[in-house]
Each structure stands twice: as C-alpha cells, then as structure tokens.
C-alpha cells in the first residue's frame, strides 16, 4: 500500500486551487521535554459561484485507528482539487484527521485516553472536542458525514440522524458501496436495531450538529468493515460519499415542486 499521508499533508502552500486550507491549533504535547504542536487540518472546496452552495462537512479519523476514512477524505480532497462538475454547487469542508494524537499512536482513543466520539455536547474539556464543537456551531452545516470503520462488522452500514432526508440518502449510498463490499444486513448491528444496514439510533456523545440548530442538518455515519482490504474500504467510502452528495442535490432540485 502507498505511504499514508501525514495529518499535515494538505496544510502547506502546495494545495491545488480552488481548495483553501486552514490549520488550527489544538493543543501542545510535552514530548522529550520539547513541545510538539498538534493540529486538526481543515480543507475547504468552494462552490463555483461564491456565496452559493450546499454546505457539507466530512469528518474522518475521530478514532485514530480507523484509517480508511482518513485515506478516503484525502482522496476526496484530491477529487475536489480537480474542480469536478459534481461539486460546482457545494461548499465542502473536509476534516481528514480529527484525532491526530490517536492516529499518531494508532489507537482508537486520543492521547489523553478518551474516546472522542462519546464526548460531544457534554461540556467536554478535551481540546479536540472544543475545537470541533466550535466549528459545528459556527458553520451551521446543511449536512454532516462522519467516516468510520468497525472491526466487528462484516459489511458496510450506517447511522442516520437529524433531517429526515438522512435515511433517504444513506439507502442509495449503501447500495453504491455494496457493489464493492457487502452490506451488513444483520437485524442487530453494534447493539442497535438495524434495517438493511441502516441504524436510526446512536451513541450518546457522537459527533452531531449542535443541539437546537435552527435548520436541521442531515447526519450520516458511514461504516466500513475494518478487516476488509484497505483499498476496498476506501473505494466503498468514496462511492458512498459521492452518492450522498449527488442524491442530496437531486432531492433539493425536487423541493420547489413538492
């Protein structure tokens, strides 16, 4: 497999236009008596017409040992840099490495030993959570897609929340991904009731839109089976995300006639 890109691959001046990069300070770690800065990178792909576009965020790597989502996020950044027609009306914010300390140590938890995906909207003092919550509050995304892997699953599946459109988008996304990896059709997945790979509940503290956000964002968590070959996990994730974006645009075009 090719070398894994570092968390800061896309934070330099070499980012191809029309992407812009942001590099936000998260925390400092004492390491061998030398402070080491840790950043959560954020890449923004602007719509063709400035100020107009569906505003979506893609979060990956919140568990440091789930590399498929991070690699898929970097592939999405490369795709966006090519200015594909599929993104002409999207403002896409990509956070490819949400848990840089966990990724560095290849662990699920952050460097402080915390599962970051159980900390949201509970007054967490974890700096990664405080930063990401601030982003979610400020940006008010129309859609939030979180990318994960599950070592106990033998197929792709996902969680839905927020807008009622979430389930309508996850269903075709799973169909697209299932051409690459099988769909998990178990009636119970990860302890939750599931229907053809779709779970309508979730864990407390999962990454979601801010409670009380005026316009309900669609929320989708896409999961790949982590024991599957990495290239297939990445390909399935890309197929799912691109299907979600395409179908969302399609549903929005229908809205005025509903």
Percentage of residues in DSSP E strands = 25-35%
CATH superfamily: Zn peptidases
Radius of gyration: 17 Å
Could you say which structural class the secondary elements and strand pairing correspond to? alpha/beta
Q: Which fold name corresponds to the CATH topology?
A: Aminopeptidase
Strand order of the largest sheet: 1-2-4-3-5-10-6-9-8-7
Shape from CA axes?
Answer: globular
What's the CATH architecture? Answer: 3-Layer(aba) Sandwich
Give the number of domains: 1
Summarize the main sheet. Answer: 10 strands, mixed
Number of helices: 5
Structure overview:
The chain has 258 residues and is of the alpha/beta class. The chain has a single domain, classed as Zn peptidases (Aminopeptidase). It has 5 helices and 10 strands, in the order βββαβααββαββββα. It has helices at 67-81, 100-105, 127-139, 165-177, 230-254; strands spanning 19-31, 34-45, 54-60, 90-95, 143-150, 157-162, 188-189, 192-195, 198-199, 218-225. Strands 1-2-4-3-5-10-6-9-8-7 form a 10-stranded mixed beta sheet, with helices on both faces. Helix 1 crosses helix 5. It is globular. The model is unreliable at 1-17 and 30-35 (pLDDT under 50). Residues 55-165 form the Succinylglutamate desuccinylase/Aspartoacylase catalytic domain. It comes from Prosthecobacter fluviatilis. This is Succinylglutamate desuccinylase/aspartoacylase family protein. Its cofactor is Zn(2+).
């Amino acid at each position: 497999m090719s070398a894994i890109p570092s968390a800061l691959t896309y934070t330099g001046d070499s980012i191809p236009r029309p992407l812009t990069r942001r590099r936000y300070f998260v925390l400092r770690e004492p390491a061998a008596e030398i402070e080491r800065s840790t950043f959560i990178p954020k890449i923004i792909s602007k719509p063709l017409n400035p100020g107009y576009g569906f505003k979506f965020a893609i979060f990956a790597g919140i568990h440091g040992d789930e590399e498929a989502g991070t690699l898929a996020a970097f592939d999405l950044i490369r795709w966006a840099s090519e200015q594909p027609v599929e993104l002409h009306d999207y403002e896409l914010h990509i956070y490819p490495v949400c848990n840089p300390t966990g990724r560095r140590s290849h662990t699920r938890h952050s460097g402080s030993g915390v599962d970051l995906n159980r900390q949201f909207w509970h007054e967490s003092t974890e700096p990664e959570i405080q930063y990401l919550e601030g982003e979610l509050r400020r940006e008010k995304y129309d859609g939030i897609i979180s990318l994960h892997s599950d070592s106990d699953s033998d197929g792709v599946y996902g969680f839905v929340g927020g807008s009622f459109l979430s389930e309508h988008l996850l269903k075709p996304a799973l169909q697209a991904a299932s051409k690459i990896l099988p769909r998990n059709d178990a009636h119970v997945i990860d302890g939750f009731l599931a229907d053809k790979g779709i779970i309508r509940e979730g864990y407390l503290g999962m990454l979601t839109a801010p409670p009380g956000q005026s316009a309900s964002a669609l929320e989708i968590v896409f999961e790949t089976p982590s024991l599957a070959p990495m290239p297939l996990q990445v390909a399935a994730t890309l197929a799912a995300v691109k299907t979600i974006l395409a179908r969302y645009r399609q549903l929005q075009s229908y809205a005025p006639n509903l």
